[in-house]
Design goal:
Blueprint lengths: L2 H10 L2 H8 L6 E4 L6 H11 L7 E2 L20 H6 L17 E5 L6 E5 L2 E3 L1 H10 L1 H4 L8 E5 L5 H9 L2 E5 L4 H8 L5 E4 L3 E4 L7 H15 L11 H12 L1 E12 L1 H12 L2 H7 L4 E4 L2 E2 L6 E2 L4 E4 L5 E10 L2 E12 L9 H4 L1 H11 L1 H5 L6 E2 L1
Parallel strand pairs: 1-2, 1-3, 6-7, 6-8
Antiparallel strand pairs: 3-4, 4-5, 8-9, 10-16, 10-17, 11-14, 12-13, 14-15, 15-16
Helix pairs in contact: 2-9, 5-7
Length: about 375
């Protein structure tokens, strides 16, 4: 039954405000459940309780094989909705007004999400940062935001909001389990990770549908008094966020099935560059990320290698998935910009220098023979 979850969401979010948004003649959205677990919940909430038109929902019948879909909420696998939202701006200009104002995608077990605007992609790192900035209208009445947390490879966009608003923030290793103690102890109410996981402390796990409803609540708040035809959309909200807090440009390179010995050589090579990096960039730091849980004081070592510039820009290296088929090397590139004329760059251009630096630090091409990554996200 979906009843218990729906009752919980009613306690967490203002359904009346979201229902008012959905009833606007100038607001259209699409939610794609990818024939996976969140489908029945989305149908009951979005159609049954919030009055959405059934055509707003896609692939909401759970199927054993997901109907041939790959239920990962990203730009590659959510192909149907990405096309509908015209994220890559392939439609002619005279068809732009037919594109919905909001889009979202669920995952296989409903724990992750992707947020889209009209011709606009919201990175998971930006999504949790924007949700935090609007926590005063998202969290239940009377509940105060004390702290937030992100996984170490997730961009520092969340940190910028926390610093500006005087909120505690925590950086943990990758893995939602590391947020558990922080939530249980009341130190953290909102968490996020770069792999499309976002949630609050209403459950001890990621909750993709909650994040979607949180974004609908933000849109409802921003459009409480806007005239029909002058709707404030996702892109405007994110761009206003960047103008206030700065923008963290971000990309991840995955090199999959790298021979384990070669992967180890890459990480060893990177660690020889600590002193060079800190001497070249005053105020920077380079280290191996070890984590001490602030609640139970357990220690998790070797959770990634970080090269951090003074302004928070970073290159991060992690190895995962060691097996008979090899290991995956992940390199995360992040560049922080706050100047008004630097907020609308192509991410590839904004990150070009820092990507070249990361590839130089690792010497990954010569060590592994890989000319390019397997996947770029």
């Amino acid at each position: 039954s979906t009843k218990d979850y729906i009752n919980l969401m009613k306690e967490q979010l203002n359904f009346d405000a979201i229902k008012k948004l959905i009833s606007r003649p100038d607001f259209r959205f699409r939610y794609d459940a990818m024939n996976a677990a969140s489908g029945p919940y989305a149908v009951d909430i979005l159609i049954g309780h919030l009055g959405a038109d059934p055509s707003s929902l896609l692939n909401c019948t759970p199927l054993p094989d997901f109907g041939g879909l790959h239920p990962d909420p990203n730009l590659e696998y959510a192909e149907q909705l990405v096309k509908i939202m015209d994220v890559f701006k392939q439609k002619p200009e005279n068809e732009v007004t037919d594109i919905p104002e909001f889009g979202a995608v669920g995952s296989g077990d409903g724990d992750r999400n992707m947020i889209l605007g009209r011709r606009f992609f919201v990175t998971p790192s930006d999504s949790v940062a924007v949700i935090t900035a609007y926590s005063h209208v998202i969290l239940p009445k009377g509940k105060k935001l004390i702290g937030v947390a992100r996984s170490m490879p997730t961009s520092g966009a969340l940190d910028k909001v926390a610093q500006a608003e005087g909120i505690k923030y925590y950086e943990t290793p990758t893995g939602w389990k590391f947020f558990g103690n922080l939530m249980d102890s009341g130190n953290v109410q909102i968490c996020g990770e770069e792999s499309f996981g976002t949630s609050s402390d209403h459950v001890r796990q990621k909750d993709g549908l909650w994040a979607v409803l949180a974004w609908l609540r933000i849109l409802a708040h921003r459009n409480e008094s806007t005239e029909v035809g002058k709707l404030i959309g996702v892109e405007q909200i994110v761009r206003e966020h960047w103008a206030k807090y700065g923008r963290n440009y971000y990309q991840r390179y995955d090199y999959e099935e790298v021979e384990t010995e070669a992967a180890n050589k890459v990480l060893a090579q990177v660690m020889t560059k600590f002193d060079w990096f800190m001497s070249q960039y005053p105020g920077s730091k380079a280290d191996i990320f070890d984590y001490t849980d602030p609640i139970d004081h357990s220690i998790s070592k070797n959770q990634g290698i970080r090269f951090v510039f003074q302004d928070g820009s970073r290159v991060v290296f992690r190895k995962s998935g060691t097996s008979s088929s090899g290991a995956t090397i992940r390199i995360y590139f992040e560049k922080y910009e706050s100047a008004p004329d630097r907020l609308d760059l192509d991410p590839n251009d904004a990150l070009k220098e820092i990507i070249n630096l990361g590839l130089e630090l690792s010497d990954i091409k010569n060590i592994t023979g890989r000319v390019k990554p397997t996947v770029i996200t």
